[in-house]
Amino acid sequence: MKTLFDTRVLAIGLLSIFPTITKAWEKEEHRLVADSALEGVLVDCGVEMHDSLIFISGRRFSINLGGQLWEDKTFGEICAWSSGNDASYARFQERGRTILQQLKPLSASLIDALWREHSAGRSSPAAAAAGSWPAARSAEQSSRNVIVNYLLHHLIALRFAKIAGQEGREGEETLRRALIYEAMALSYLGDGFSAGHVLVPLTDVLSRFHSINNSHAHDFYRSKGVYVINSRGEVWKAFGDKLLHWYAPSYRHVLEACITSLRELFLVYYVALGGAVPERLKEWGESVSAGMSLEGIVKGWITTQDGEKYYSITKMPTLLRFPMPTAATWSVRTEKVDNHGIHRRMHFPQLREPGFHDPDLEGIDVEFLFPRTAIPSWMIPDLLNESSPAELIKSHPDLASVRYIQERDFPPSYVGFLLRLGGGVVFKKNGSGSGTSVGLGYGFVDDFLVIQKISVDAELMPSFDEARRLLFATNFGLGIKLPAVVGLVEASHFEAGYAWGLRSPFKAHGFKFAAGLETRTFPVGFTYAGITVRLLYQRIALERTLHGVFLNFILH
Amino acid sequence: MATLSRRAFLRSSLFSCASIISAAPLASILGCASSCPSRVTSPAHRRRVLADLHVHPMLNDWIRRTPPAVQYPILASIAERAFNPTRATWESSHQAGVDLMCVAHFNVFDEWLSMPTDPNPEAPANTIRMMDLLEQELAGPAAPYARLARNHEQLRDLLAIRKGSDNYRIAILHALEGGHALGGSLKPLEQFARRGVALITITHFFNKGIATAANAYPFFPDSHGRWPNQGLSEFGREVIQEMERLGIIVDITHASSSAVEDILRDVRKPVIATHSSVRTLANHAYSLFDEHIQEIARHGGIVGIILYPYLLSNYSGEAAAKQQGSLRDVVRTIRYVSKICGTHKRVGLGSDFSGYITGPTDMRCLGEIDTLRKLLLREFDADEAIVEDIMANNVIEFFLENWRSGL
Questions:
Q1: Nearest partner of B372 among B329, B333, B324, B327, judged by Cα
Q2: Backbone phi, psi, residue A81, to 5°
Q3: Distance between CA atoms of B153 and B314, rounded to whole angstroms?
Q4: Among the listed ranges A478-492, B99-113, B133-147, which one has the minimum average pLDDT value?
């Protein structure tokens, strides 16, 4: 029998198990997406592609947009630089809140104030001619969420684009400035699509004292993925940093959002410039205008208003693309058909109130639904006015109730400080004694392949066997995962260390070994801490060997 | 008091460690038995209970005969215990009143260790050996519980025997999972047809030169996209034509969207999806689009729903499905397929039990099928006729009308 081992099987297997090996670094992902988006939009604008990107406007001047725009950085590099501190609050969505809710705190006055700060109050070409612009810099609001920070930078960019259009031939510097702020905006936009930035409970008071768990939550959702829905009725599974290219739908949504944001900017520019808007850009503008003129929609984007209105009333195209985590949707069949005859389906989030969600949902799913007041009315399907959800599910051929069972609460991390408490039986030739222990330690690793919960700790064992025997021990421990065959037991656990007797006459010292079983981590509710329980057989070689069985509780 | 030497201490410590690490899993593995729990209920006077389109009661036995398992039997035990938690035993299925089981034959090595351009010429012989193994089982330990039907006439005769009588047996049909079993040639089809193979799932995990496969493993990235460039190959077209000539039913489960589209365009007879799911409810490449389901139904085919929750809903991962997946996922899917087909008559069940899937938390053994029946009765307003159709009659009628091999 001649058989060949299918190397594709091997490759697929390796890629599946170690996806992170093949991925770009996080900043590089920002740069790639930004540059790809800019390239795509410039094609819409009728750019002649040369070795460097040259932009030809309707009035025949050129700007090198592929070159360095600001502080020796290209467009993509500005985006990558701006992504800076990935752990900053300004780069996260607020867990459990919709786009509308997250934009509510953004007032028109703040938008105006920031514009004045970054434009030195010059809002027209004539005013701009009075002096040079202030130095471009980040407009990050560190206490605001990622959607607000995107919108703020983007609105500044749009206003500069408008002035650049009005300046015409003299608008090169202003257009360059618009792109600088847009590049910064795209860094927030990209992070807003990252699974690790959507469900981390950053605003939770207790989470602020547990930064290791925030980082752990970020990594957990990054690799597990999160089912998300946007305001255009699209649902996909988002993944996180360094996994951008691993899952095509996840990448496609980020790229399309960045392209949309740049299209908004260039449409503003061309409308302000006057004359013809490039054909493909015009087509796109008309597709999102809902019957308004191009001037009309652009005016809506530029006009100062409260943040939520850019979303709920103006329906800025990029804002409609931001993802929100979803537990259940109404999937409605539309008349649009693709090349294969498959109808496009549009998703609407199911809502918490009775009459707006599938009555068959589990309790925990309902908890994760948004309330009706948290979304605009145009995100509620008209079908729900026709009949009850139960009846629609049973009989309406175009509607389906779709569940997305997310990882609600990530398991607490073992990495960080540990508190150890234990007690047990010490075996003697005649009868038995008892022992207790209390210790502090530090966990290094949650899990790696078959190994888990690697840590070191120091423990005090008062009254170990004899009343006056006080022991101090240091331990190094790790677990080896077991197949899921024995209920709560997750792994075997091994420790090796050294113990010292501290109190006369028991001052002997020697090696300490322990082996046993440990359970999975039990989350301690809202604190993001967890408890692992271990049953260990311990042996300590002192002036005689002490051995016994101990039950340990590890709080981490 | 003499102290223990350091070497003796280390030796005794290591021995203690080894004992502990091995005790727990060994006790579980060696102590476990391949049996079903006692939740099996007898069907009383009910006429039909279950026609299962896709089940693997012999898979463990076959795997134990493969060279790695013969050399290291403990590995097979560990694999069964850890990765094959669902059961389909003869006795419990008989006790529960199961009417029909399509026993799927699948040899993992024939599929995983061959290329589409270099198929394994021994695959047909291995397939025959699997069929022989089943027939030996049916002639031996399983004889009181099940009997093979080689054609639709024998099937009809078996099904005519009243439940509760001493002669009642589960009707067993041969089914092949994966066109790799052909070894790259049309010739074995005739032999398979004579042996009574009722249906062939023409592709499985990988493209083996017949049709592109949809990603079914949870941890595989969906790298093929929604519509792979290739669907059904030229050879695949020939396979389907020959199958239809011989009266073997074409099973499109596991096929990619492109392959399903090609097959539905090419076939002239009704097709079946033995153990499938719905893309609208569960966004997996494995799942069928509504339009394809409706096409299958329009042409008199059957869509069998798999009892594998991970593929029936959008779980965050296999672990979440294992903990939370239940028969409610199955019921929702059945309800939806009935709705979009406009009738419940085109729906069936293909459990895939004992096929290395993680079943629902509320049903681990095929003999517990009454649990599903009760849920379906609740869903369909206690209409026994509808539920009986879904669980058995639709599939039985389909085979009696469309299966023509083995004559």
A1: B327
A2: -60, -40
A3: 41
A4: A478-492
Q: Is the pLDDT of residue B290 over 90?
A: yes
- State the DSSP string of B177-220: E-GGGGTT-STHHHHHHHHTEEEEE---SS--SSB-B----TTS
- Chain A residues within an 8 Å CB radius of B209: none
Which residues pair with residue A489 across a beta bridge? A519
**Contact residues, chain A, for B336 at CB < 8 Å:** 400
- Tell me what the pLDDT averaged over chain A comes to: 85
CB atoms within 10 A of CB A180: 23
Q: Are B25 and A19 inside 8 Å of each other by CB?
A: no
The pLDDT value recorded for residue A202 is 63
Number of other residues whose CB lies within 10 A of the CB of residue A335: 7
Q: If you average pLDDT over residues A149-165, what whole number do you get?
A: 96
**pTM reported for the whole predicted model:** 0.83
Query: Are the C-beta atoms of residues A470 and A463 closer than 8 Å to each other?
Result: yes
Contacts of B288 (CB under 8 A, 6+ apart): B260, B273, B276, B277, B278, B279, B296, B303
SS (H, E, C) A54-92: EEECCCCCEEECCCCCECCECHHHHHHHHCCCCCCHHHC
List A473's β-bridge partners, or say none: A459, A499
User: Which region among A488-492, B3-7, B218-222 has the lowest average model confidence (pLDDT)?
Assistant: B218-222
CA A171 remoteness from chain centre = 37
**pLDDT (mean) for B48-60:** 94
Contact A333 B290 (CB under 8 A): yes
- Strand order of the β-sheet with A324-325 is A235-238, A226-229, A324-325
Q: Report whether B403 contacts B100 (CB < 8 A).
A: no
Give residue B320's identity as a one-letter amino acid code. Answer: A
Adjacency order of strands within the sheet including A48-49: A48-49, A53-56, A62-64
Which tokens hold the place of A44? 């819409």
Residue B120 with chain A: CB contacts under 8 Å? 1, 3
Residue A402, min C-alpha distance to chain B (Å): 5
**Measured at the alpha carbon of residue A398, what is the angle toward residues A392 and A400, in degrees to the nearest 5?**
60
Q: Do A6 and B112 lie within an 8 Å CB cutoff?
A: yes
pLDDT at residue A141, as a whole number: 87
